[in-house]
Design brief:
two-stranded antiparallel ribbon, single chain, globular, mainly alpha, 22 helices
């Protein structure tokens, strides 16, 4: 494996290939910063360019756009509460409070470092464990995916900072929104009030509305002023020693979760980042600090989504199975170059396979070198008064949403979701679980239906198959732990309330 990796590294270090690798990651980062555009739009637009390049250089450039957008997505999330990509939605929960408290530089540095380390861990896993992880992924059928999604939905109820019951209600709202559109099995329209909703509600519209527009409305209603003058000295971007000690664990856990979910077709970086945040909140000794600008809560999802972006190429290259729409475009680019991805790709096209893998290693280093010097420039954005930023932010959101599906209805829905998100925050309902429910709801429905058709309505398959049993046990333990935590918290609050009056003279 090491010899093959060095072979790929030699391919990437050729001057022409290195230029395209740099162009890919740089374009990806810029696209990630722009809210609502996303890697899939950039790759679609640049796909014709690959006709004039060889297959290896083409995939290296397109892959750079994909994982480069994961880096860039965190910048707008931290500075403006605008998730540049779906996987950077969780970054808003901790990154934006850090920016509002004058620690934007530290948040950007932590995000860049976590992304780099998570990406490197993902590369190492791809090099060492591509074949074993492919074997595990092949064992996942419809029942296993169903139980995995159920576990994800339960974990989503722990993403917020408030009541688990309210978070679970928001998950169900997201699942309900995910039902809008044509039924994937029967083709019948569900809750389609207008023809433009036949394809369902756009994920970009929902994310931009709940997080971007709602924040603009909230700041405008509060007449917020840019009172924080952020520090832009380089020494101010580094965490203190005590804060730095809290980061290795979240980064490693996030990278592990991201690597696992990235290798599973149909999951991806967005689900991995939500799961990493939920797990980190459970591991933390101070869960109450989550949502207020807690560095471990920022490091875990950033590490996770970049690890998932690397391992997402495992099923794409070794099985020919795309994990998401971006990976489907990658397969399309390979086919256009006369290469069929699958189990023999590693043998028949070793230069391409290992060249792409080695480009992840080089690309992550390039992104780190680009990001750290630019932190001071990004932080200067916070010196612009909010009143002047509002129109720019709204225009960026509208352009990004419209360019996704060229639909005016999506822009209108974004404004509606913005008002809804503003009301939710006022009444202490978390918007993040809505988004995860929206993503996981269709996956749950499709895999549950498929499992019922294959096994003729036998519900026992969800607890008798080995992997299903493990996932079911994890779900039950998660629910039991949540109930225990809630009861313990109420008892502590009751005890504090009882002791308070007694100790008062």
């Amino acid at each position: 494996m090491l010899e093959q990796f060095l072979l790929g590294l030699g391919v990437v270090m050729q001057p022409e290939v290195l230029v395209y690798a740099f162009a890919g990651v740089f374009i990806g980062q810029v696209i990630g910063v722009l809210p609502g555009i996303g890697a899939i739009t950039a790759i679609s637009l640049l796909l014709p360019v690959t006709f004039h390049l060889d297959a290896t250089t083409s995939i290296i450039m397109l892959a750079g756009i994909y994982y480069g957008s994961q880096y860039g997505g965190s910048i707008a999330s931290i500075l403006l509460n605008l998730p540049g990509t779906p996987s950077s939605v969780v970054t808003c929960l901790e990154g934006y409070p850090l920016a509002r408290s004058g620690r934007a530089g530290m948040a950007l540095f932590t995000a860049a470092l976590s992304s780099f380390l998570g990406g490197m861990i993902g590369v190492a896993i791809v090099v060492l464990a591509a074949i074993p992880m492919t074997t595990i992924a092949l064992k996942f059928g419809a029942p296993e995916y169903t139980m995995l999604v159920v576990l994800g939905l339960m974990a989503a109820s722990m993403v917020g900072t408030g009541s688990h019951l309210r978070a679970l209600a928001m998950v169900l709202v997201g699942v309900a929104l995910g039902l809008v559109g044509a039924d994937a099995t029967t083709g019948y329209y569900r809750y389609v009030a207008m023809p433009e909703l036949a394809d369902g509600i756009s994920l970009v519209s929902l994310a931009m509305g709940l997080f971007g527009v709602s924040e603009v409305i909230r700041n405008a209603a509060a007449r917020a002023q840019s009172k924080v003058q952020p520090q832009i000295r380089m020494r101010d971007i580094f965490p203190s020693r005590s804060e730095a000690r809290t980061l290795p664990g979240p980064i490693l856990r996030g990278a592990g979760i991201g690597s696992f979910f990235g290798a599973l077709p149909g999951t991806g970086a967005a689900i991995a980042s939500f799961m990493a945040y939920a797990v980190e909140k459970r591991f933390s000794r101070v869960p109450k600090r989550f949502g207020t600008g807690h560095l471990p809560g920022l490091a875990a999802p950033e590490s996770s989504n970049n690890a998932a972006a690397q391992t997402g190429f495992i099923p794409t290259l070794t099985l020919g199975v795309p994990g998401d729409a971006v990976m489907a475009l990658m397969i399309g680019a390979l086919i256009l170059n006369g290469i069929i991805p699958g189990p023999r790709l590693m043998v028949d096209q070793p230069t391409l396979f290992w060249g792409v893998i080695a480009s992840f290693f080089v690309g992550n280093i390039i992104l780190l070198l680009i990001n750290i010097p630019l932190i001071r420039l990004w932080v200067l954005m916070l010196r612009v008064p909010y009143q002047k930023l509002y129109p720019v932010i709204v225009i960026m959101i509208c352009v990004g949403v419209y360019s996704h599906r060229t639909s005016v209805i999506d822009v209108v829905l974004t404004l509606v979701f913005g008002i809804l998100g503003y009301l939710m925050k006022n009444y202490r309902f978390e918007p993040a679980p809505v988004l995860l429910g929206f993503v996981l709801g269709p996956l749950l429905e499709d895999n549950f239906r498929r499992a019922m058709l294959i096994y003729r309505g036998d519900f026992t398959i969800f607890v008798t198959r080995p992997i299903c049993t493990v996932l079911f046990t994890c779900t039950v333990l998660l629910i039991a732990f949540s109930i225990y935590s809630s009861i313990s918290q109420r008892r502590r609050m009751a005890a504090a309330a009882t002791d308070g009056p007694a100790s008062t003279p």
